[in-house]
Automatic annotation (TrEMBL):
Chain segments annotated as coiled-coil in the UniProt record: 189-223
Biological processes per GO annotation: methylation
Protein name in UniProt: SAM-dependent methyltransferase
SUPFAM superfamilies noted in UniProt: S-adenosyl-L-methionine-dependent methyltransferases
Region forming the signal peptide: none
């Protein structure tokens, strides 16, 4: 992967960046995504944010090497603290857990007033990301699921609007993704069949464990998840 050719998952993220927007890529690593977006003429300006010194220095070197210093600013800081109020209108956060993405958005939500689009790629627990969007009046406008190198990735895209609009069965759709459920693609089927097997294995272990309030609650939660996923896959 480089600034000319992104990984499949990052290219999918890039496809949702509105042309002409001012981008902030949080957790930018080597700044591949902002460099790609600027070189392709998708965005005129980008901020690459990194909290860790090593990736921060890697991003700075990448931007300098590509001669993009005037269009891409690399900043070191935690989450959205790397952007100024009103500076950015599109934010990408890719390659983190859903809970971490949600906490970054929550801690920096005062910086989101001028932001028109969020493009998020949680590695796990997309549910947590969807829940944050729902709680903070961001409407889910697109979802994508893909497989790359035997790993399955979900992409969640949101704009300010009616957060309940995509949902009909809230609990089930927060878990599986309301738009992904409609598509029911091969990666979607594969992901949730694997999850089912995992949950059924855990449930079997719990059946053999000493009964406690904790195990009773866990079994109830797993049975409910299994029921919801089986309903969707059976369709």
């Amino acid at each position: 992967m480089n600034t000319e050719k992104l990984s499949q998952r990052l290219e999918a993220v890039a496809n949702y960046i509105p042309r002409g927007s001012r981008l902030a890529d949080i957790g930018s690593d080597h700044a591949y995504l902002p460099c790609y977006a600027v070189k392709k003429g998708v965005v005129p300006f980008a901020v690459a944010g990194e909290v860790v010194e090593g990736p921060y220095q890697s991003a700075k070197r990448q931007v300098k090497m590509k001669g993009l210093d005037e269009q891409i600013i690399v900043r070191k800081g935690n989450g959205l603290e790397v952007i100024a109020l009103g500076e950015i209108d599109c934010v990408t956060i890719a390659g983190m857990g859903g809970a971490l993405i949600a906490s970054i958005l929550e801690e920096g939500k005062n910086k989101l007033d001028s932001v028109k689009r969020l493009i998020l790629q949680p590695n796990i627990s997309a549910l947590t990301t969807r829940q944050w969007l729902l709680d903070n009046a961001w409407e889910l406008i697109a979802e994508e699921i893909l497989e790359e190198d035997d790993k399955i990735y979900e992409i969640v895209v949101a704009e300010k609007g009616d957060p309940l609009k995509p949902y009909k069965n809230l609990q089930k759709e927060l878990l599986l993704g309301p738009l992904l459920m409609k598509q029911s693609s091969a990666p979607f089927q594969k992901k949730w069949r694997n999850e089912l097997k995992n949950w059924q294995r855990i449930l079997k272990q719990l059946e053999n464990a000493a009964e406690s309030e904790e195990t009773i609650l866990k079994k109830k939660e797993l049975n409910e998840k299994i029921r919801m996923v089986e309903e969707v896959l059976d369709k």
